[in-house]
# Entry
Amino acid sequence: MSESEERKPVEVLRTPVVLDYTYSAGQSSSRHLRAFGKGKLLGQRCPVDGRVYFPSRGSCPQHGVPIEGEPVELPDRGTIVTYSVNRVPSENIDLELPYAAIQVLLDGADTILFHVLGESSIDDVHMGMRVEAVWKPEEEWDDSVANIRYFRPTGEPDTPFDQYKEHI
Amino acid sequence: MPDVTHSLTAAHQLAYTYKRSLGPVLGRFFTGLRDKQIHGVRRADGKVFVPPREYDPETGDAMEEMVAVADAGVVVSWAWVKEPRPSQPLAKPFAYALIRLDDADTPLLHAVDAGSEAAMSTGMRVKARWIDEPAGAITDIACFEPG
Ligand SMILES: [Zn+2]
# Structure
């Protein structure tokens, strides 16, 4: 830095705000995340109307009741109910840009899972598209949703709109 | 049936990388710190505000006459910090103090490295300890120390 640059008046002040949290997942999300660590997708059923929540937060937001029954194991495939195209890189997603961020309704679930779509072009992604999970190699698994690297199209016929319209 | 496994936890950092534009009055204050000088702003009646304010808190009039003040003064109020947190000015116990510098009429908030709580008192004299390579920030003053 030259002498004249050094002597420029100070015009800007950096004032970063950094908040360090320890996030506690709680009983229900911990069980869900540990299941991911074993390659399983666990939902839970509302005792009032039988809707299957995935992931389960341990209570039903609609009926205000605890969900304490046996977990419901779900398959790692489902239907894209909606999506958006992402053109901004993100530190923890290793897909090439642009890619689709998707909401997946797993078969047998009544709530949607946020994930990303791989092995597909953004020109092909659409509502009703059938997808399946692509897992990381097992030795890289952690208690994390990130054990699923992405979803990819299965090539099955689309799910009819009427079958998922309640879940968008 | 609640199970007895412990909850998973994970570190989560939320950070905002703010920058603020200083404007002429605070800009002069921070530029002065880089030269190991503390500046205040003088009101028409002679009252000197340190740190400088852009507007008279009583009338709202703009103030812009910058004046250098001493880097030593008197503690007018203080609180002892027994267990400093990582982002605080000193890693060992210290006092946060309001310090009225000589030539100034309002107090500046900074840290005092007094060694112990017993060594702190209202009315004590302190002087600035500057860092070796000031950059134009309030942290150019590492802290104040008795003397
Ligand atoms: Zn319910």
